[in-house]
Amino acid sequence: MRYPGDMPEDPAPALPAGLEESLSWLLAGSFRAHLAAMREVLGDLPHGSRGFEALCGAAHGSARNQAELAKQLGVDRTVMVYLVDDLERAGLVERLADPRDRRSKLIRATEAGHERLRALQERTATVEAELLSDLSPAEQELLRSLLRRVASRGAGYDLAHACTKDEC
Amino acid sequence: MRYPGDMPEDPAPALPAGLEESLSWLLAGSFRAHLAAMREVLGDLPHGSRGFEALCGAAHGSARNQAELAKQLGVDRTVMVYLVDDLERAGLVERLADPRDRRSKLIRATEAGHERLRALQERTATVEAELLSDLSPAEQELLRSLLRRVASRGAGYDLAHACTKDEC
DNA sequence: CAAGAATGTCTGTCTCACAGATTATTTGTC
DNA sequence: GACAAATAATCTGTGAGACAGACATTCTTG
Predict the structure, then answer these.
(1) What pLDDT is attached to residue B130?
(2) Domain for residue B19, yes or no?
(3) DSSP calls for chain B
(4) How far apart are CA A80 and CA A67, in angstroms?
(5) What CATH number is associated with residue A138?
(6) Is B140 helix (H, G, I), strand (E, B) or coil?
(7) Which of A77, A148, B55, B116 is deepest in the core (most CB within 10 A)?
């Protein structure tokens, strides 16, 4: 865990000149920072940040089946297989038969999954708070709101090959 | 309530309930959206979005050497090798000997690199404008500003293994 | 009932990131 | 000046992960 005063003495490259105005880099940089901050918190959770989002979705029942959850997470359907496999093996989620469609499987968080998620969310909240600590509470909420609108608009894009190869 | 003319083009998963408040998902979603939007614009540019940022950094001389550019881009030093290799092979950047330190190599954009970058920036601006079209100009600038502060704070984190494995 | 679409899964393949070692050069220490 | 340690770039090998394509099952639509 790193604390505010605990910055690496490293002659920090800080923000790269000329890139700081590029939305490309701003999003990548923020995303990377968040990812790095989450890493230690998530610990041995299968598939790290993505596993966290999947568990989150499973707990909230945000998707009817595996395919829809995959779309929400922005991953390929074949990736979803071993993602859920590993979460299931860890006892955090379970595949339930959908009574309405025997092809579908409902992905739901187990009791242990809910418990784990709650514990993780406590700690991720701390991490996020630190990451956003330069922003006032109002600005933090504003940032979420703006990102939500951007992400919402981007939800319609073709996400094939969107995620993994680059930075991520 | 749905009306006759109100066609459900795609049963759009839209925003996943329960995830939309998670900064984790908001950043990932926005980042993915931007990545997807940029893909077609960048075309055959080596290494896509990351190559674009590298070219940008090379053009602005934001880094003294290859290692520092790698830090700014958030990539491993060994990754930087073939990233620059490919950009160099495409004639967009060049490795110059640093007169002050013969170990270092300055990564600079060639004439063709500047040209290509300028052309790309025109088109990426269009794409970004569309991605942000739900936001007013003031909000767009606000978003950039907020992200800059987040990314800036996150610049000090340990970025090892930050990027690739998870979405991105 | 037949044809087609959707869901989840499996297999094979291929790209990519990372650890570790290597070479060349610089910096620090005595 | 001589030596050790640190740093920059590179190369090799390996492993993880993403994707295309095919498949079995089930639903939907004509």
Answers:
(1) 93
(2) no
(3) ---TT---SS----SPTTTTT-HHHHHHHHHHHHHHHHHHHHTT-TTHHHHHHHHHHHHHT--SSHHHHHHHHT--HHHHHHHHHHHHHTTSEEEEE-TT-TT-EEEEE-HHHHHHHHHHHHHHHHHHHHHTTTS-HHHHHHHHHHHHHHHHHHTTS--TT-SSSS--
(4) 8
(5) 1.10.10.10
(6) helix
(7) B55
DSSP calls for A78-135: HHHHHHHHHHHHTTSEEEEE-TT-TT-EEEEE-HHHHHHHHHHHHHHHHHHHHHTTTS
In strand C, the nucleotides that come within 7 Å of a protein beta carbon are 6-11, 15-20, 24-27
Whether the Cβ atoms of residue B24 and residue A36 lie closer than 8 Å to each other: no
Q: How many domains does chain B have?
A: 1
B76 touches chain A (CB under 8 A): no
Phi, psi angles (nearest 5°) of residue A108: -125, 150
- Does the beta-carbon distance from A57 to B30 stay under 8 Å? no
Q: Looking at residue B9, what is its pLDDT?
A: 36
Q: Do A134 and B124 touch (CB under 8 A)?
A: no
Q: Looking at the domain assignment, is residue A159 inside a domain?
A: no
Cα–Cα distance measured from residue B138 to residue B151, given in angstroms and rounded to the nearest whole number: 20
A86 interfaces chain B, CB cutoff of 8 Å: no
Structural domain including B121 reads: 45-130
State the nearest residue by CA to the C1' of C26: B101
Q: pLDDT (tens digit, 9 = 90+) per residue, A51-90?
A: 999 999 999 998 999 999 999 999 999 999 999 999 999 9
Nearest chain B CA: its distance from A3 CA (Å): 10
Res. A159: pLDDT tops 60? no
Is residue A53 in a domain? Answer: yes
